[in-house]
Amino acid sequence: MDLCVTIKGVSFLLQTGMGIFGNSVVLLAYANIICTEPKILPVDLILCHLAFANLMLLLTRCVPQTMTVFGLMDLLNDPGCKVVIYAYRIGRALSVCITCMLSVFQAVTIAPAGPRLSRLKPALPSLVLPTFAGLWLLNMAICIAAPFFSMAPRNGTVPAFTLNLGFCHVDFRDYLSYVINGVAVSVRDFAFVALMLGSSGYILLLLHRHSHKVRGMRRSHGGGAETRAAKTVVTLVVLYVFFFGIDNVIWIYMLTVPKVSPVVADMRVFFSSCYASFSPYFIISSNKKVKAKIVCAAEQDQPSADNQESSEK
């Protein structure tokens, strides 16, 4: 096997394995939290849904990509490609939308109480599920064209204005469809990233200008926890925007050429999936609830392992 192909395959394999494991751990931890704790904060539900969206992205994009890199061909037929590509597009869209939602909800949570926010803040928990439903419907509608252009790879040369994903082709057939699809996706992404950056900037402004006041006002209501959560959200936003920037620089380049090199397409897949792979580990390291559940599960497994060893002796 060629050295470059080996490096690419190992990179995708590590990224996919780490991402699936990390997001699965976060999902299981939050599932336990939701089942055992009487009061669930909006941020917990949002982070749980973010882990699900990231897991969905990795399973539908990185897993088949990794298998293709290692030489497994003809993985999917035309209907399979349509389902996988559609699910991937929705997962990718939900990742940016839910990160934005997380930032906006956290900004509202730590904002000083005012005439309008005094009514909005108590309603935040009841708005989480309707917002999830709205984001799902929005992105299902925006991504609805993806199945119509997706197909299993054909023998021969790749036509112009076709994204060669290795395991599937996305054939836009003409330049107009190619550009309209790219513009629609980019407008949605940039809109949510702009809102994400605005709310995160507001969070930073509050933490910088009113840190002492906020700590004093909220000490009896878990203000320290809110501040830690706000810093976690801002860091997640910075992480997303960094990889989003790399992803979109490559995407804009892809829109300017009629035939995209597989190497360029692979680079975009890798960088666009980095957030989904790295974010769960940051959530685990910065979220005390998730960390406590993981430690508790590890401690419960340890005695059983010790008992098994002693019985074998």
UniProtKB/TrEMBL annotation:
Native source species: Pagothenia borchgrevinki (Bald rockcod)
Transmembrane residue ranges: 12-33, 45-73, 93-115, 127-149, 190-208, 229-255, 267-284
Domain of life: Eukaryota
Record InterPro entries: GPCR_Rhodpsn_7TM (IPR017452), Vmron_rcpt_1 (IPR004072)
Membrane topology: Multi-pass membrane protein
Family membership noted in the UniProt record: Belongs to the G-protein coupled receptor 1 family.
G-protein coupled receptors family 1 profile domain residues: 22-283
The protein's name in its UniProt record: Vomeronasal type-1 receptor
PANTHER family membership: VOMERONASAL TYPE-1 RECEPTOR
Classification via Pfam families: V1R
